Structure formats: C-alpha cells, structure tokens
C-alpha cells in the first residue's frame, strides 16, 4: 500500500500571498500569522515570499490566477476578510471569492490556500485572526506548504 502524506517544511518553496486591503485591521494579523508560519515552521526564506495587496476579497481570484500564470510560485495564499452586513453584498463577495479561488487553483494546478475569513461579525473575525480561534492566516500558509509537498510526492510516485 502506498501512502502519500505531506510535511510542512519547504525551505525552497516560492510563495505568493495575495491579501485584501479592505478590512486591513483584521487582514494585517492574518498576514503576520502567514509570514510567521512560512518562515518559522516552513523554513521559507524572506526572498521567497512575495506579498501582493489588492482592494478587496473579490479581487483575490483574478490576482491569484495572474500570479499562478507567471510560473514563479509553488503555492499562493489568499487572505482577506468578509464580514456579513445588512445586505446581500456579503453573499456575492464571499461566494465570488471562494469559487474564484477554487477555479484558479484547479486551472493553474498549483495549491491555492483559502485564508479568507467569512464571518457574521467583527468579533468572529478578530477571534480567527490571532485570538481565541487561532490565526487562519497561519493555517492557510501551513496548508499551502503541505500541499506543495503532497503534489510533489504525487508527481514523484507516478
């Protein structure tokens, strides 16, 4: 029986982080968590990390696709925060970001880690950006690293 499992360390990995400016007071914490995880746990060098700022979460899929199309990155981490308001805007932005990022990953065939918070209120967002519920930016970065190693192991075992 073959079992393929990824590990986290990927010192040679080239990672792009696409991050939304909207709700930056939350997203800054997600970015700090992602960079810390990449460097401390993943052993990724500063020179191998590129951060790209975009206006909001809705713009993440196009940015991720453009980054993937360069061929310069082994994985991309998408970070943002969409907080439910009193209109249907939340559903369009959160749904568009989610489906767009999944499509970008499938088309590019490189890992795209989903670090976009979709919360009911600001308190939930704060909890997921480094307080009670951990840091989802760090979790997304670790997912990207593990997926790089899983994909590489699959390709090596074909």
Structure in words:
The chain has 158 residues and is an alpha/beta fold. It has a single domain, classed as Rossmann fold (3-Layer(aba) Sandwich), CATH 3.40.50. Helices cover 48% and strands 22% of the residues.
Specify the number of helices.
Answer: 5
Whole-Å distance between the termini?
A: 14 Å
Rg over CA atoms: 15 Å
What's the CATH H-level homologous superfamily? Lumazine/riboflavin synthase
Q: Provide the structure class.
A: alpha/beta
Order of strands, main sheet, comes to 2-1-3-4
Task: For the structure shown, list the relevant keywords.
158 residues; alpha/beta; Rossmann fold; four-stranded parallel beta sheet; two-stranded antiparallel ribbon; 5 helices; 22% strand; globular
Task: Write the topology of this structure.
Elements: E1 15-20, H1 24-41, E2 49-54, H2 60-69, E3 75-83, H3 89-108, E4 112-119, H4 122-128, E5 129-131, E6 134-135, H5 136-156
Parallel strand pairs: 1-2, 1-3, 3-4
Antiparallel strand pairs: 5-6
Give a nutshell description of this structure.
The chain is an alpha/beta fold and 158 residues long.
């Amino acid at each position: 029986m073959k079992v393929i499992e990824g590990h986290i360390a990927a010192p040679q990995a080239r990672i792009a982080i696409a991050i939304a400016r909207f709700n930056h007071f939350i997203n800054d914490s997600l970015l700090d968590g992602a960079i810390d995880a990449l460097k401390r746990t993943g052993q990724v060098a500063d020179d191998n990390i590129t951060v790209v700022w975009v206006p909001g979460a809705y713009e993440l899929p196009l940015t991720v696709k453009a980054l993937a199309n360069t061929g310069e990155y082994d994985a991309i981490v998408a970070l943002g925060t969409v907080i439910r308001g009193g209109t249907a805007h939340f559903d369009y932005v959160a749904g568009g970001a989610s489906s767009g990022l999944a499509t970008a990953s499938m088309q590019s065939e490189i890992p795209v880690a989903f670090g976009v918070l979709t919360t009911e209120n600001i308190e939930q967002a704060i909890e997921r950006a480094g307080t009670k519920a951990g840091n989802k930016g760090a979790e997304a970065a670790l997912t990207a690293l593990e997926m790089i190693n899983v994909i590489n192991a699959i390709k090596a075992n074909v």
